[in-house]
């Protein structure tokens, strides 16, 4: 008799659970109904905003923004560092955590 009651309880729980799912099926994640708002922040004087993200500097000046990224490999890092220093060129570096974790690259990173 006790075994029969356990089975009834299990079946009841099963039907309640799936009955709830049938009445309230999981809903997909809401998608944005409109694009995310674009920042209205004005760029620095002398820069022109192109579309939403690209900013162009004064085209009459001979300047470029140099960005160097590194993840797994550092070959040529010393050559790049020396060339930038020799010509007094400023650059931005994007280095991943994997690049930083390699202790053999710490001297190179500090030299940039």
Q: Could you name the ranges where pLDDT drops below 50 across 5 or more consecutive residues?
A: 3-22
Question: What portion of the residues fall into strands of 2 or more residues?
Answer: 5-15%
Give average pLDDT, whole number. 70
| Helix share, percent | 25-40%
Largest sheet: spatial strand order? 1-2
Order of H and E elements: HEEEHEHH
SSE-based structural type:
alpha+beta
**Roughly how many Å is the radius of gyration?**
30 Å
Characterize the biggest β-sheet. Answer: 2 strands, antiparallel
**DSSP helix count?**
4
What is the overall shape? flat
Tell me how many strands there are: 4
Q: Measure the end-to-end span.
A: 79 Å
Walk me through what this model shows.
The structure is a single chain. The chain is of the alpha+beta class and 112 residues long. It has a domain at 44-111. The chain contains four helices and four strands; from the N terminus they run H-E-E-E-H-E-H-H. The protein has helices at 2-23, 77-86, 97-101, 106-111, and strands at residues 48-50, 54-56, 67-70, 92-95. The strands form two sheets. It has a two-stranded antiparallel ribbon. It has a two-stranded parallel sheet with strand order 3-4. The N and C termini lie far apart (79 Å). 1% of the residues are buried. Residues 3-22 have low confidence and may be disordered.
